[in-house]
Amino acid sequence: QRLGVLHVGQRIEEQADFEKIYKNAWADNANACAKQYAGTGALKTDYTRTGKRTQWGLIMDGWNSLIRYYKNNFSDGFRQDAIDLFLGNYSVDEVEPASPLHVKKDWKFLALPIIMVVAFSMCIICLLMAGDTWTETLAYVLFWGSASFGTFAIILYNGKDFVDAPKLVQKEK
Question: What GO CC terms are in its UniProt record (predicted)?
């Protein structure tokens, strides 16, 4: 009222248009910040916008959480490296000839996940499209199931190699 935005007696809670614009701007800002930090939109923006939790909002939060988990573990090491460089937590050593950022990946980092996905898909297909006999179907399911489980076990055993960790080590303070 002192700024002249509201008349005497008006309350901010009664301004539905302002509240809608404000909540949407707040949720849009949250999305922008979350995309920079986590690589996906913010969680619970349906609640921020409407004040209610929706089924679609729950589905989108689950999807965003899965994407965040994947990015955090397998493709976000460069983000931490960039933050460390920007903040000065890592200083580039001009004497060192090789870049710590360039690490050559082995063939298994591409081949094993593809094999696992194909084997798991084949297992599901064999379950859905049953063969002439139950023994034939069981044999196919056991083969593709063991192939998917085996590659998954190899990936788990070598888990630290598959994770995209930051490559720059923080300088000591």
Answer: endoplasmic reticulum
**C-alpha pair distances (Å), 34 with each of 1, 40, 63, 108, 150:** 34, 6, 14, 32, 36
Distance, CA of 40 to CA of 166 (rounded, Å):
19
For range 3-31, the mean pLDDT: 87
- With tokens 């509201």, the residue in question is 6
The alpha carbon of residue 31 and the mean position of all alpha carbons in its chain are separated, in whole angstroms, by: 14
User: What CA–CA distance (Å, rounded) separates 151 from 115?
Assistant: 7
Residue 46: its H or E element:
helix 45-50
Q: How confident is the model at residue 133 (pLDDT cuts 50, 70, 90)?
A: confident
Q: Would you list the domain boundaries of the chain?
A: 1-89, 96-167
User: DSSP class of residue 131?
Assistant: -
d(CA 111, CA 152): 12
CA nearest to 139, candidates 126, 152, 129? 126
pLDDT in tens, 41-74: 999 999 999 989 999 999 999 999 999 988 887 7
In this model, does residue 30 exceed pLDDT 90?
A: yes
